Amino acid sequence: MPAETLHPSMLDQPARYQIKILGRLDIRWQAWFDGMQMEDVKEAGGETITILTGTVVDQTALHGLLEHIRDLCLPLLEVKNLEEKDVR
Amino acid sequence: MDLPASLLTTKLYLSPTPVTILSRQRLLRRLQEGLSKPLTLISAPAGFGKTTLLRDWHASQAGSSFPLAWISLDHDDNVPGRFWMYLLSALRTIQPGLGEGLFTALQMPQLPPLQTVLTALINELAGIQTPFGLVLDDYQVITAPEVHESLCFLLDHLPPSMHLVVITRADPPLPLARLRARGQLAEIRGADLRFSPAEALAFLNDVMKLNLTEEVVEALETRTEGWIAGLHMAALSLSQQEDKQAFVEDFSGADRHVMDYLLEEVLQAQPAEVKTFLLKTSILERLCASLCDAVTEAVNSQAVLNYLEQANLFIVPLDNRRTWYRYHPLFMDLLQHGLRQELELSEQSGLVRRACLWYEREGMLSQAISQAISGPDYDYAANLLEQRVLEIFFQGHTLLLHRWLKALPEKVLRAHPLLCAVYANTLAHTSYFQPQGIKQAEFWLQEAEKNLRLVSPGQGLPPSSGSPTQNLARSFIALSRAYMALWRKEPLKMVIVLARHALEGLPPADSPSIDPNYLRFHSGLNCNLGLSLFHLGDEEPAVSAFKDTYQIGMRCGDFLNAFYAVYMLSSIYRMHGRLPEAAALCREVLRSLDESGFSHEAISPAVGLVYVALGQVSLERNELDAADEWITKGWELSRFIPGIDIHLQACIALANLYAARRDPVQALRILEQFEGGRSETAPLLENIRPRFWLAQGDLDSALKWVQRHPLSEGRTDIEKVANLTLIRVLVAQYRSASQASPKMLPDLAPALEYLDGQLIASDGERRLDRVIELHMLRALAAQAMQELPEALSSLRTALELAEPGGSMRLFLDEGMPMRRMLGEVWQAYPPLQGFISRLLEAWVEPVISPVTFPAGEALIEALSAREVEVLRLLAEGSSNAEISLKLYVSLNTTKKHVTHIFEKLGVANRKEAVRRAQELGLLQKSIH
Fold first, then answer.
1. What's this model's pTM, rounded to 2 decimal places?
2. Is B47 close to A70, i.e. CB distance below 8 A?
C-alpha cells in the first residue's frame, strides 16, 4: 500500500533518529542496526556511550530497532527525533 | 498447516532445570506466595533467568504438586484463534479433554465470537476444583491488540482456583496498575532477579566449580551488575582460562559492553566446527538434528547438539526425547549477529533456503513460510504462498495468511495477482469491512486486475482462459467483490453475478481428481449464492444451490457450509408447510453422518445447524421430547457457529419449547440471556417477547410494548413478525376489556385490515406457514369480537392448510380461546375431526406459572423475570460473582437484583430468601 496516499500520517513517514546507548559496542555491530551510523563517545564522567544515527523508514521500524536493543540488554539512554520540521 | 504434534509438544514442554543452576530460595518463596493472587508477572530483560526460576520452582517440593500448564509463545501466535488453541492445548496437558467442541470452534475458518468461546472456557475452568496455573512464556512477542484484550477478559473473570503467570521482556498492556492497587498482582522484576553478591559467589564457586576468590567474584559481579547471562558467559570463558586473574582484570577494565565482550570470548573458546555450527543454525527458531544437517550440509548435527547441551552453551531441550532444542533467545540474537558478520550474503540466503526446503519436505508449511519471511527470502515465500494459498485460506488461517501477505514487500506482492486478490480479501475481512479496509482491498483488487490485464475492472470478466493460477486469481477477485457487495448492501443481483463469475474460474466440482480445497471454494460460493437467491425470492435455483452446497461440502469436509445449506433447505420446506419433508431431510443427513463415521469433534459445532433445524420441525409438529433433545443439543453448539444468526434462531426455538411446556418465565429468561446478537436480527427477540408475557398472563407488559410498536406496513420479515405479535396482544386486550370494561375496547379494525391485506399479498407467495398463521389470527380476532361464524370459517381454512404438514404448535400456543373454538369446528366440519382430535389430545392442562401468585399473598411486589433468575441461582448456591458471569451482567447489577429480591421477599439474607421463595412456590424445579 503506498503510504503517502492512504496513511498520510507521521507514523508511516521515514525519519532521522539518534539513539544513545550506555557502553561501547564494537563497530562490527553496525550491520545489526541496519543503515544506522555508529560512533562511540567518552562522556565527561568517564562512561563510554554508543550513538546510533540514521533514518528509519517508519515508526514500526523504529520500534523494531528499540526491541533489538531491548533484547540485547543494552541500556537505553536517549531516543531523539532529528527531523527539523517535527521538533517535539 | 497447524503445528505437527511433535512440534506442538515443544511449545507446551517445560524442560527440566539444568544442573548448572543456583536454587534461589528468596525468589521461590515469592513465587509461592504470589499464588494467592490472580496474576504473577515476571518481567525482565533477556538473560535474567526468568524461565529458569519458574522451572526451578516447578521442580521444588512446593511447586511440583501444583499442576502447571505451560506455553512458549512465538510471533505466529499473534492471532486470537491460534493463541487460544495453544492455550487450550496447554491446559489440556493438566486437564485432559478440557473444552471439547471449543477446540474445533477455534480451528474453524471463521472464528466464533471470541467472548462466547472464552466464557465457555472460563466456565469449564471454574469447574476445576484443585488450584492450577497457566504460564505464558515470552509474552513480549504478542503484539496483537485482540489477543491482549482476550487475555484481559480471562483475567477479569479468572476462576478462583486458577493462577496466571506471564513471563515477558516488556510489560504487557494488561491493567497492571489496577491489579497492583488492589493487591492482585505478584511481581518479580529485573532488580529482584539479578544475582546478589552472595548468589554470584555461590553460582561461580558452588555451581560452576570455579574456585574464585571473593575479590574476583566481586569484580565480576560489579562488571556484570548481577546479570545472570553475563555471569554465565563469564563463567564459561573462565573455565577455559589458564590465568583467571588476568582474564578478570582485562574484562573489568574493558569499556566494551559486557555481552559484546563475552560472546567473543565464549565463541573463540569453541572448536571451529562448533562455532560454524552455532552461527549457521542461529537462523532457526527450533533445532533438531535432521534440520541442522540440512541447513549446515553436514551429517554430525546430533553429536554437536549433544556437545552443546553438555557444555551448557545456552541451548534448551524442548522435549524429553532430546529431539527438539532451541537457543537461549539472547544467545540466538548474538549468534545471528555473528552470522551476518562472518558469512557472505549468498551463503546466508542458502541457509534460509535449505531450512525452508526441509520444513516443506516435512510438511511444516507454516514454519517454511515463516522462515522464508524472516530470512528474508520473499520470492520463495511468495511462491510457496501462491502454491498453497487455497489450503491455508480454507483451513481457517485467514489471519495468519494476512500477516504473511502483509509482510511481503509491495513489489513482490504485485508480481503475484493471485496473492494480491487474496490479500484484498483478507484486508476486507480483518478490517471488518470498514471503509479504510475496503479502500485498501479495492486498491489490491485493482493491482491484481491490472496484472491480469483486465480492461474494465469489476465489470465483466473475460472467459477463464488463463493458467490455473490466473483463473484462481480471477475467482478470488470475484469472491472478494461479492463479499464487499454483500457488506455494502449492494443489490443482491450483483452479488449473484459475482458469485457465478467466481465459480466459473474454478475447475468444475465434478472433475474426478479435483483438489479438495477447490471443492471448499465451490461449497462456500454455492452457499452464498443460494442465500442471495433465496433473499431475492428466487427459490428454485436457491434450493438447487443449497443441494449442491450440501453434496460438495460433505465431499470436502466443509461441514459448516454443508449443514448451513441443510438448515436453509429445512427452513424453506418449513415455510412451505412441508414439515415431514424437512424432518426427513434432517434425519437422513444425521443418519448418513452416523454411517460415515466422522468423529463428533470433526462435525461439531457445525452439526448444531442440523440439530436446530430438526428441533424446529419437531417442535412445530408438537413432538416435544424430540424437540427437546434436538433444540437443546443445537442450542449448545450454535453458540460457536460464527457469522450467521443461528444461535438466535436456536434461542427462539428453545424459548418456544419452554413456552410449550408451560414455563414462559424460563422462555423469557432464555431470551434475556441471549447476547452478542447482530444488530440486524436482534429485534426479532424483542418482537416475540410479548407472546410469552401473554402466555404468562402479563397483559400490562405486553401493552407497554405495544406503545412502542405501532402497526407497521410490514416491509421486512422482522416488521411482519412484530405486527403478528401486536395483533395477538390487541386480541388479548380486547378479550380482557370485553369482560371488565366494555367501554375500553381497542379498535381491531386496522389489525383485521392488515391481516386481509397480507392474505391477498401472500397469494403469490409460497410461505404457507405465514398464510396459516394469518387465517388463524383472523379467527382469534373474530372470536374476540363475538363474530363466531366468521371465526370458525377462518379457523377451518387454517386447519385445512395445516393438516397435511401436521403443523400443531401454531394452534396449541394460543391457549384456551383456541381450544374452545376447536371444539366448535370439530362439530361443524367432520373431515377435520382427526386432526382436531390430535390437537385436543395434545393439550396439556395449564399449570399456574411460577410468578403468578394467589391474591392476598404476602408478596407486595412481584419479582421480575430477571429477579427470579437471580433467585434460582442464589438457591443453587452461586456467589454474586458467579451469578454475574452466568447472566452476563456486571457485579453491581447482580447486587442490585439481590437487594431488590430481599426487599420484595422481606428477608435479610440469602438463606431466608431461598426459604421464603420456596414457601411462595417461586422456586420450582425447572425442566432440566
1. 0.75
2. no
